[in-house]
Structure formats: C-alpha cells, structure tokens
Amino acid sequence: MITIILLHPSQNIPLQTWSFDQEESISIGRSIENDIVVYSAVVSRYHIQLKKNGQLWECINVGANGTFVDGEKITEVGLEDGMIIRLADTGPKIQVKLGIGDPEALQKRKKKKASSSHETLNTFIRDV
Fold first, then answer.
1. Which pTM does this prediction carry?
2. Parallel, antiparallel, or unpaired for β 48-53 and 25-29?
3. Per-residue CA distances from 110 to 49, 76, 103, 114, 119 (Å)
4. Beta partners for 50?
5. What is the pLDDT of residue 121?
6. Phi and psi dihedrals of 36, rounded to 5?
7. pLDDT digits 0-9 by tens, 31-59
8. Rounded Cα gap, residues 20 and 35, in angstroms
9. What does the alpha-carbon distance between residue 29 and residue 35 come to, in Å, rounded to a whole number?
10. Domains of the chain
C-alpha cells in the first residue's frame, strides 16, 4: 500500500490523503486525467509519476516546473517512507507513506513505539 498526503504549505499538517493498494503506477498533476489532481498554477498538467518497481516505489518528474526532494531538483528518485516531495520550486508538498493505510493510526503506533522505547531505555539505565 502507498499513501499520498497533501500537506499544508507552511505547517506540514495533512490536508488531503489518498491511499492505493493495487496500483503499479500513480500520476499526479493538475489535469483531471491524473489519479491525484492537485490544483495549483505551478503544478504541471502531468507533474510526477509514481511507479512500483518490485517492492520499491520511485518518483519520476514528467512536468516542466520541476520536482524537489530536500531542496534538490530531481528527475527520478527512489521513494522512502515519510519522504516529502515538493511539486515545483514553490509549489505544494506531498508526503509519501509506504505500507500503511491510515496516517492517524501510524501516528498512534509511533507514539506507542516511542513510549515503549523510552520505557526500555529507562529500564536499561536503571539496571546499569
């Protein structure tokens, strides 16, 4: 499963979420022919293509305005869980979640895991 999250431009909070379970390819852009439509003047009609390659996903820029990861312009990049992709230099940001369905459930799992790790660390320190 892959989940795509449109983020708020300045606060990185989720605005909209799309999940795909069986797709091998997902198109994102301004045209209504895309799997995910992002309405922004700087987003190309066909901006990026996410393609599954075996168990891995990759992002391919197909738009004229560029695609950026960590401020670097990319033509193609392997996707990692949690990666944030910016459509155009000043455009919208999307986050990629791999292998999960519900972002809120993921947050709960992360908090539980962090709490568990903290308890393990406290036990380790106490036992030392």
1. 0.76
2. antiparallel
3. 29, 29, 11, 6, 14
4. 26, 59
5. 39
6. -125, 120
7. 999 999 999 999 999 999 999 999 899 99
8. 10
9. 8
10. 2-103 (2.60.200.20)
